[in-house]
Design brief:
Layout: E1 40-44, H1 50-58, E2 63-68, H2 71-83, E3 89-93, H3 96-103, E4 109-115, H4 135-142, E5 143-153, H5 156-167, E6 172-175, H6 179-182, H7 187-194, E7 200-206
Parallel strand pairs: 1-2, 1-4, 2-3, 4-5
Antiparallel strand pairs: 5-7, 6-7
Length: about 210
């Protein structure tokens, strides 16, 4: 008598952690994205999620939303987060400035992380930079009381501009980046550091809202 193989049902795939927007005209209900109500940290331009996934693993007491406009990169965030079994991570494919202006409800984020944004090195392109003269006012609107914005770049000229616009804003004060946070690297940062290019980093805390 032949042994008949026993068929077993394949395990259902775990649900995608990418946010599907019902509308790009209405603010997102960020509280409804996660199974547990916790402080929300947002990474603007999260790349392949190297920083986001590792930091979310270290801080299960916070929720994390990665924003990235490139499809391939945000899909990597989804795969990495699901493989790691993280329930406190979500990803959204959209342009960062649009997300801040129209989709993130005011006073929602406990922290904003902006790491190695496009420096647009030519002067005629500086108007395309994410962090410009008007950015502190936008960040102020989206951060919750006492919230912090964390900045990193390898571009000295852009870093100078970042510092200038936030130093000129009375609603923010410069603070130190915690060592445990600075130790969690992005994919670009690891590549740059391996080539001897240092990380320039700054942090500003909201003191008025």
């Amino acid at each position: 008598m032949k042994n008949t193989p026993v068929e077993t049902a394949a395990a259902p795939p775990r649900q995608s952690l990418l946010v599907e927007l019902d509308s790009i005209l209405e603010p997102i209900n960020t509280a409804g994205l996660f199974p547990k109500a916790q402080p929300l940290e947002v990474e603007l331009g999260c790349g392949d999620g190297s920083f986001l996934i590792n930091y979310a693993r270290q801080k299960p007491e916070s929720n994390f939303l990665g924003v990235e406009r490139l499809t391939g990169r945000i899909k990597k965030v989804d795969r990495k987060a699901r493989r790691a079994g993280l329930v406190n991570v979500r990803g959204l494919r959209i342009e960062s400035t649009y997300f801040l202006r129209y989709l993130l409800p005011p006073q929602t984020a406990a922290a904003l992380h902006i790491y190695f944004p496009d420096p647009w090195p030519k002067r005629k392109h500086w108007s395309n930079r994410l962090v410009d003269a008007g950015f502190p006012a936008l960040a102020r609107r989206e951060l919750s009381a006492g919230g912090t914005i964390y900045l990193r770049t390898d571009a000295a000229a852009y870093f100078k501009q970042m510092r200038q616009v936030f130093d000129a804003s009375p609603e923010f004060r410069a603070v130190e980046t915690p060592e445990e946070l600075a130790a969690v690297k992005t994919d670009f940062e690891m590549e740059f550091n391996a080539r001897g290019i240092p990380t320039l980093l700054a942090a500003y805390q909201l003191v008025s809202n």
